[in-house]
Amino acid sequence: MKQLKYIIAIAAAYFLASCHKLNVPPLNIISEDQVFSSANGVQAYLANIYTFLPMEDFVYEPNGGFMTGNGGRWQCFYQMDAIDGEMAGPYGGTGDAAQGFGFWPYDRIRVINILLADLPKYANLYSQAQLNEWLGEAYFCRAYTYFALVKRYGGVPIVNTVADPNATPASLQVPRDKEEDVYNFIGSDFDSAYALMWAPGVAGNPGIQLGAANKYAAMAYKSRAMLFAATIAKYGAANYVDGPARAAGFVGIPAADANKFFQASYDAAKLVEGNFSLYTGGYPDKVQNYVDLFLKPNNEWIFIRQYTLSDPNVNNDNAGPHSWDATMTCRIMTGDGLSRTYPDLDYVERYGSLPIVNADGTPTRFNNLSDITIGLEPRLQGTIYFTGNTLRGVTFDQQRGIYKTFTGSAAQELSDNLNSPNDVYAQYPDTNSSANLIFASDPNSTYRNHRVIGRAGFNPSTGDDNTRTGFYLRKYVNYNAAASACGLYQSTQSYVDMRYAEVLLNRAEAAYELGMTGDALADINQIRDRAGAVEATASMTLDTIRNERDKELGFEHQYWWDIRRWRIADQVLDNRKLYGLMPYYIATENKYIFIKQIETFQRTYTFQKLWYYEPLPGGELGKNPNLYPNNPGY
Amino acid sequence: MNNSIKLLFAAFAVLAAASCAKTDNYAAPNSTFQGNFIDSVTGQNLLTETGGAQLMLKQLSWSSTPDPYYIPAKPDGSFEDTRIFSGNYSVIPTQGAFWPTDSIVKQISGNTTVNFTVTPYLEITNFNHTQDADSLVMTCQLSAPRTDGLPEILEIWPFVNSTEYVGSGAYISNFTISDQSNGSYNLAPINTTWNATIAATTYKCVVHGLIAGRTYYARLGVRVNDSYKKYNFSPVIEVDVPTK
């Protein structure tokens, strides 16, 4: 009986307890008001947005994506410039990565839209200027994300509100917008960012925070985006693949609107003037100055991504270190890793032909390997490691091979011996061979006490771990770090996604297209002066401006998008072979010669016109029939 | 203790086995769709290469916005897919060196054969070759079945390979590069829209450096600046280089 009492009492306790309402705030989820009602919360929310900003940085892979939390992200050589003809890299051809990776960041756009919609509800907690700064950053990030979409797919659905997940599926299946409308939307978001954010460092405003957007960054990116729209309108009208998506305006912009966008690009670029400047802190050495521009924080950097030494496999984000140093130069200079992508001679020849052939056709004789750099433009020397350069005390000594003797012209030698249909790279007669031309598969092989291929040289036994073109990339390589600190996930130099040089180049291109050649010339000559190049003259052409852009922004993952928006990719990459500058030692003369040859893998790069737009991701098409028609050719 | 573990394993095994019981009862893709791309001028199979043209199929039985499905052309101008789902398809020849055509709707089941007649942009005519030691000279003329609206004609390419599968996707590029030092190809450039001069010209491509004692296969290909830049080909010739 007593027991029964207890049982009743306990049962009653259960029943009473069950009357509590269930809508108590969960303890394991941080609610919106907890985030937006403190400055730290808002900043953490924004930091998350920046972390996932689709930036084509050191770890971005054109067919792998932004590599967030991906264990393959140490392989920096899988990069865009390895499919666009700037570098001979690990991709078998342009087609390996031309159709993208199914990028569809509407989850990230939603995160931004939530802040834009809900942060103003907490306006009474903050100063108006602070609130506007945050909203401006969000507009910047939204425009940035949509630009990453539109440059791949053309028109995509514009979603600028927070959709209710309980709404009907039909209302969530947002149709595609026209390509032109998406560019207009991007322009307007950048304008909002510009209008809302404070002028950094003036009138008591905080200065620029590295890694975060600022007022002028919005205009710098607007100049980039509007230039894309303008050139697509102008050149896409002549070179296109037809299809229903084009007829509906989902891809393609009317040619008549080109000048409107050129003007918008020019105006935006002009607003940046005076707030950033080209880096000259390393003068008078213009080579060192150009190298340091990418390594020392300076006033040319407009928007960057920073990295820390936190473990990339623990942190499921992009903030872990990258592996640029371990994967761009030769293993003999680093602590770990390997290189697989190399600048080609085609990039070097943007600066003009190298003096490797005499007037009579014979190869020019050089006393030292390093003599090839004598007289080269400082910017070129700051971008590429040539033979004879040193890094961390080790010399780039790459050689293609040794000639016992050499007579005649380079052209004759190429057609007699080096252009044999049998891949000479696959056969490497050893040093004891009776052949006149000696290759080797061992860096320690010598012929008369002279290394045959050098330690950094063309080594067929290691595949593409050593250069295929005779060059290594210098841009962004941190020469200050010790070799032991150049292993995988040990590099933390920032990625400069937007710098003032690009703003000037955007402005020059837009100005020239609008007929303002004087403005364009002044912009180009600012760049050339810093580069240590000869000044351009009033007779410069559009090609001069484009070539200047390609030189200045080489290996910064821009060329791919540039040849796409100029609609010349199908001509630039048309059964294209990439070339190298192959150094040979002539034993009898104790001299060096350089021969222009196809890179050792002899790969072919071809761009198909339908790749001017990527296909919409199949999974998204399956979920949303309103995305049809897919882009032309798919 | 031992027994209960055994029992647990047995139960687990039964459950694991049971979970595999569902069978996919949908018929496997067991139909065959085959046929030829027919050149409307010659009435013969289109002279093409592996993937030199595609058939784009859309299965209409399921969705109003089906994913396209492609069957590539074989080198002899035929196509064949022996593992295709039965169903109602819209089919169109595309991504080849011929004028755009209309799609047809076809019920594919069992063994379905369809020939698609296409009009090539260009025909290579009077195709001849001579061979001297390590050199091969190929000559041809061009004719255009339709000249109105024909895109700009780019150039004629010589393709040489060591197997009979020769075309833009399979050729030894060293033979096609005329000057290693500047990367130029030994093409016959045209780069203009169709005109009487082209019709009257005999074009010549020369290939050097053939190795004695080898057998090569060669052909010419011409392309226009349309959306796909595919090639209209000559027939393949076999070239036996005599030993020295």
Describe the structure.
Chain A has helices spanning 2-17, 32-36, 39-51, 106-118, 128-153, 169-172, 179-196, 215-236, 244-247, 258-272, 286-293, 324-328, 345-348, 378-383, 410-418, 500-513, 517-531, 542-552, 559-565, 569-572, 618-623; strands at residues 87-88, 301-305, 342-343, 384-385, 390-391, 394-395, 401-403, 437-438, 446-447, 450-451, 472-473, 495-499, 576-577, 579-586, 591-598, 604-605. With 634 residues, chain A is α+β, with helices and mostly antiparallel strands. Chain A starts with a helix and ends in an 11-residue tail after the last helix. The model of chain A is unreliable at 421-426 (pLDDT under 50). With 244 residues, chain B is mainly beta. In chain B, strands 10, 13, 15, 16 and 17 form a 5-stranded antiparallel β-sheet that branches. Chain B has a 4-stranded antiparallel β-sheet with strand order 3-2-5-6, with no helix packed on it. The longest helix of chain B has 17 residues, at 2-18. The mean pLDDT of chain B is 89. Chain A binds chain B through residues 240-242, 357, 410-411, 414-415, 418-421, 570, 574-575, 577, 579, 596-598, 602, 604, 608-610, 618, 621-622, 625, 628, 632-634, and chain B through 63-65, 67-68, 95, 168, 172-175, 177, 179-183, 185, 208-209, 211, 227-229.
